[in-house]
């Protein structure tokens, strides 16, 4: 979710009793913000912000991925990225932020949608150098919120419901636009694949290959096997494994005592 264009002044905090007055060199800070180094970070989506200032307090003004705590790595999760930033010599600053799809980004986005909290800048005034915006519950510049605290005053319940419905409708339209974009990209991919397929068919035809040889023209069906046939095969296998096969009995090598006499009588009868 991206915020609308937020404009606030470094000369007007919008507070009387809380916070701390700032005395920036407005001209030098504007030159830093509008300078090539800062704007390059904006273009590359490198100006990240966090939920609260504690990551910068703990790991420095540019905490990057985190640091070591008691000798162990501690990761820092960004909540937002600044997508637009400009400043004028009179102290006017305008910026736009996009909440990231992280846990801390979701918390900050819900607070922003609920009109609670606001943006707080991280600046080194001595150099000067601008490090980005974080989302905090009580920004020092109360005007740096992206919404007016008086937006809901004087509105009827129906007006409030209509405003909520309008925001939800805008969110749905963004989702539909995203889905439409995905569909268009899918159709482009299909057209590209169809063109490649036609080129392959032409190449195969030029080499004398049949159209039926193209795999994507042949439906690949799952192999169907009869359950009865499979069961019969399994049953026959088990029968074969457990079957008792016939065995051969070798004749005895020693002849019984009467065998020579019987053999002699038979031989004499056939030789008479």
Following the backbone from N to C, one meets helices and strands in this order, namely EHHEHEEEEHEEHHH
Main sheet overview: 4 strands, antiparallel
Q: Which ranges are low-confidence, i.e. pLDDT below 50, for 5 or more consecutive residues?
A: 151-155, 209-225
Shape: elongated
Short recap of the structure:
The chain is an alpha+beta fold.
Structural notes for this entry:
- This protein is of the alpha+beta class.
- It is 41% helix and 17% strand.
- The protein is built from 7 helices and 8 strands.
- A hairpin with a 4-residue loop joins strand 7 and strand 8.
- The longest helix has 50 residues.
- The protein is elongated, with a radius of gyration of 43 Å.
- About 8% of the residues have low confidence.
Q: Which features would summarize this protein structure in a list?
A:
272 residues, two-stranded antiparallel sheet, alpha+beta, 7 helices
Strands, helices and their partners?
Layout: E1 6-9, H1 26-34, H2 36-43, E2 48-49, H3 54-59, E3 66-69, E4 72-75, E5 80-87, E6 92-99, H4 103-113, E7 118-124, E8 129-136, H5 157-206, H6 227-242, H7 259-270
Antiparallel strand pairs: 1-6, 2-5, 3-4, 5-6, 7-8
